[in-house]
Amino acid sequence: xxxxxxxxxxxxxxxxxxxxxxTFSQYVADPQFRRxxxxxxxxxxxxxxxxxxxxxxxxxxxxxxxxxxxxxxxxGELIGxxxxxxNSEQDGDAWTGYYLKPEFWRQGYGTEIAQALxxxxxxxxxxHRICAxxxxxxxxxxxxxEKLGMRREGLMKEHVRVQEEWRDSYLYAMLQHEWPSVKRx
Length: 185
Known about the structure:
By secondary structure, the chain is α+β, with helices and mostly antiparallel strands.
């Protein structure tokens, strides 16, 4: 099984490894970390299943799911992650997202992760459209998306249920020709 990675100036985005389970379990248990997330990975067992699922997804041909751990290049510390999930090889579209341990918020790492995933999707996978969802209360997240040039396409009212609460989501998207790093002929 080939290992996949993307390097940024400060980070290495790489496939999750079994060795990441303990660290990942610790920070996903933090209520502050989970505040705006829609997925429930609050137990060690759920993290085990998530990492097993990411390992299985990377063996698919073609690979449609890139769930990546974000580690500091200098130390190897796991600080968060991101994903780029394609519906199918033919569709030309994908969904992306990113997350960080709270002590790494507001330091540019979220932007670095999101930018790397958009660049990979548009340049390497030749995607036509990439979408992202975020909780409207998560100002930091939607500011990252807007900073990268993604367009807010709408507000999805009570679109997802988290625990016993219905939550709204902003829908963001970008087309390949709108991505600044795509080389045009």
